[in-house]
Specification:
3 strands; mainly beta; binds iron/sulfur cluster
Length: about 80
């Protein structure tokens, strides 16, 4: 199983990754909206109910509830 991406990982901080989309700072991330989360992102591949792989963060798992500034809504 892939290790979980931490918020303080240098890759994560660059894209403002948070484990919980509800904790994203609106002032820092003006494009963020409350309904955006990894589970509905085009770059996300679910591995379980709570976590999955992200095409950007190779070798790590992100939370289904997570978010980063590369979010792209799944078609
Ligand atoms: Fe989550 Fe999408 Fe960002 Fe990957 S690109 S961390 S799936 S919001």
């Amino acid at each position: 199983e892939l290790p979980e991406l931490t918020e303080d990982d240098p890759m994560a901080t660059g894209l403002g990754y948070k484990k919980d989309t509800a904790t994203v700072d609106a002032a820092e991330q003006p494009k963020h909206t409350a309904e955006q989360k990894c589970a509905t992102c085009a770059l996300y591949t679910s591995k379980s109910a709570t976590a999955g792989a992200c095409a950007i963060f190779a070798g790590k798992q992100v939370r289904a509830t997570g978010w980063c500034s590369a979010y792209a809504k799944k078609a």
